[in-house]
Design goal:
single chain, seven-stranded mixed sheet, 50% strand, 123 residues, mainly beta, four-stranded antiparallel sheet
């Protein structure tokens, strides 16, 4: 599975962005789609995840109510909608795919990773 994230940029506090993750290859084998981020000088952290069949998603506490993951099967693309952005959301955002047979948010269970896309929120 190959993943390509895009859509990052420089925005102001309170703005919105939609990140896209274009997937190709054996996408039918993916069970959990995930988004992670790495803030400057910090470790990579979980943002949100979506079960491939729908019906379940999960977000880190700081993302709840502001971020949303969705998927367009026809386009083989997964999205991360970022609303009400804060300066602490500044990070490189990565999309990832897991073929493990259960829903997961654990980075080590995501076998496929795309290159990151930079999101910078200016206050």
């Amino acid at each position: 599975v190959q993943l390509q994230a895009s859509g990052g940029g420089l925005v102001q506090t309170g703005d919105s962005l939609r990140l896209s993750c274009a997937a190709s290859g054996r996408t039918l084998s993916v069970r959990t789609w995930g988004w992670f981020r790495q803030p400057p000088g910090k470790e990579r952290e979980f943002v949100g995840a979506l079960w491939w069949a729908g019906g379940r998603d999960e977000y880190t506490e700081s993302a709840k109510g502001r971020f949303a993951i969705s998927r367009d099967n026809a386009k083989n693309t997964v999205y991360l909608q970022l609303n009400s952005l804060k300066s602490e959301d500044t990070a490189v955002y990565y999309c990832a795919a897991s073929t493990v047979g259960v829903f997961t948010t654990i980075p080590e269970r995501f076998r496929y990773w795309g290159r990151g896309t930079q999101v910078t929120v200016s206050s």
